[in-house]
Amino acid sequence: MPNLIGMQTPTELAAAYRSQGRKLTPQRQLLFQLMYGNDKHPTAEALFAEASSQMPGISLRTVYQTLNELAEMGELQFIDIGGGATRFDPNLDDHHHVVCVDCGQIRDVHVNGTAALKPVGIEDFTINEVGVVFQGVCSTCEKGRAKSNKTAHAKSPAPQAKVSK
Amino acid sequence: MPNLIGMQTPTELAAAYRSQGRKLTPQRQLLFQLMYGNDKHPTAEALFAEASSQMPGISLRTVYQTLNELAEMGELQFIDIGGGATRFDPNLDDHHHVVCVDCGQIRDVHVNGTAALKPVGIEDFTINEVGVVFQGVCSTCEKGRAKSNKTAHAKSPAPQAKVSK
DNA sequence: TATCTAATTTGCAAGTCTTGCTAACAAGAA
DNA sequence: TTCTTGTTAGCAAGACTTGCAAATTAGATA
Ligand SMILES: [Mn+2]
Ligand SMILES: [Mn+2]
Ligand SMILES: [Zn+2]
Ligand SMILES: [Zn+2]
C-alpha cells in the first residue's frame, strides 16, 4: 500500500543537502520546516511572510531560491492556476486540486476516475501527466455570498479569479 | 446534436458590439478575424505580432483591451497553464488541453470520462467546472529529442515548462 | 455633409511576480 | 583558526499586464 508521499523531512533534507555538497543554512532549515507537510499551497510571498516572523531579515530572494532548489531536487512541485503567483506544493502524492474562485484557496483532492480519462485526437503526443483542477466556491465564501458581499473571508488580498476552464 | 460552440463570427460580433453601444473599430474587426476559429491558444503578444503585420501601428494595449472585452462578453476564455503569459481561447466548447512541455504548444482535446471523475473530500465546495490538462511531448519534439537536442522545433522562444502536476 | 460627443486607441508609466547579478557573509572542511 | 566555496541579501532588471490621460475617431445628430 503506497504510503503518502511527500517532501522529505527537514532532517532527511539536511542529509540530502550535505550529500550533494550543498550547505545547511538556518534559512534553508527554516524553510524546510515551513514547507514540510504544508498543505496550504503557499506562494513565495506567503512563505516569506511566515519565515520573516521567525527569522527577521531573511530575504524573499532566498525563499525563491530555496523553493526552486527543492523543486529541482524533486521535493516539491509548482502549481500554476489562474492569474497570480506560482504556488508551491510539497505533496508529491498523486493528487489534484480544488480552487475557490472567491477566496483563492487551493485544497488537495484525490480524484477517482482519472485512469479512465480518454483524451481524443492526440495520438501524436506522449502523455506523461494529467492534472485535474476543480473550480468552485468553498462553504465559507458561499455563506458570505448569500447575504451581502461585504463579508468576504478572503484571507489573502483576494486573488483575481481568472477562470480558465 | 450539439454544434461546435465557439466565439461568434466577426460579423456577429460586429452586431453584438453595436447593440451594446460599443464602437466597431478597425482594430477590433481585425482582432475578431484573427481570433475567430483560432485554435492556437495565442498569447496577447503572439496575437499582437499577427495583428501588427496586417495593421502596423496597432498597439499591444489595444490587443489586451479587446481580449479582456471579449472575455467579459463570454466570447473567449483565458487559459493559464504554467509559467508564462495568459493564452486566449475562442473555443467555448466543452474541451480540455494538452501541453507539450518541450515547445509549449497547447492543443485542444476532447476528453471522455470527465463526468465520472469523483473528487474525494471536498463536500464543502460547490464545484462549477472541471479542467483537465495533459502534459506530454508532441511527436515533433519527440523526434528532435531522440537524436541531439539542437533541433528543438520551438516555434515560440521555448516557454519555460514549469510542470504543475 | 458638417458637427458633436462619447468611446477608443496609444504610448508610457507603473504594478506584480520572478530572476540576474554581486558584494558581503558563513558553513564546513582542513 | 584558516581557507575555500557555496549562500544570502539587496537591488536592478526582465516579463507580463494594467492604469492613466491626451489625442483620435466611430457613429449619432442636424
Ligand atoms: Mn496539493
Ligand atoms: Mn482550447
Ligand atoms: Zn472561498
Ligand atoms: Zn512540442
Write the layout of secondary structure elements.
The structure is a homodimer of 165-residue chains.
Chain A: H1 10-19, H2 26-35, H3 44-54, H4 60-72, E1 77-79, E2 87-89, E3 96-100, E4 106-112, E5 118-120, E6 125-138, H5 139-146
Parallel strand pairs in A: 3-6
Antiparallel strand pairs in A: 1-2, 3-4
The complex binds manganese (II) ion (2 copies) and zinc ion (2 copies).
The site of one zinc ion (ZN) has 7 residues of chain A, from α5.
The first copy, chain A, binds a DNA duplex (30 and 30 nucleotides) through residues 18, 21-25, 27-28, 43-45, 57-62, 64-65, 68, 83-86.
CATH topology of the largest domain in chain A: Arc Repressor Mutant, subunit A
How many DSSP E strands of chain A?
A: 6
Count of helical regions of chain A? 5
List the secondary-structure elements of chain A in sequence, H or E.
HHHHEEEEEEH
User: Please, what is the average pLDDT of chain A?
Assistant: 88
Small-molecule binders here are:
manganese (II) ion, zinc ion
Most strands sheet of chain A:
3 strands, mixed
Which regions of chain A have little confidence, pLDDT < 50, spanning 5+ residues? 148-165
Shape of chain A: globular
Largest interface: A-B, 47 and 48 residues
| Widest sheet: strand ordering of chain A | 4-3-6
How much of the polypeptide of chain A forms β-strand, as a percent range? 15-25%
Assembly state: homodimer
What's the CATH class label of the largest domain in chain A? Answer: Mainly Alpha
